[in-house]
Design goal:
By secondary structure, the chain is mainly β. The protein has one domain: Single Sheet (Rubrerythrin, domain 2). 0% of the residues lie in helices and 49% in strands. The protein contains no helices and four strands. β3 and β4 form a beta hairpin. It is elongated, with a radius of gyration of 11 Å. It starts with 5 loop residues before the first strand and ends with a strand. The model has no long low-confidence stretch (mean pLDDT 91).
């Protein structure tokens, strides 16, 4: 697996990096945002892709 396909997902509320994921950067040009569970907030929050 190539390193340039890996992304980090950060919680928008507590700013913690909780998830790592993959994305095809040729197909998806914009930053990814998903609703995921955050352990620190103890609820489902929006997670956005970091640099």
């Amino acid at each position: 697996m190539s390193q340039d396909n890996l992304i980090k997902l950060e919680c928008t509320e507590c700013k913690k990096v909780n998830y790592n994921s993959r994305k095809n950067k040729k197909v998806l040009k914009n930053r990814l945002s998903l609703k995921k569970y955050c352990k620190q907030c103890k609820k489902h929050t929006l997670h956005k892709e970091t640099k």
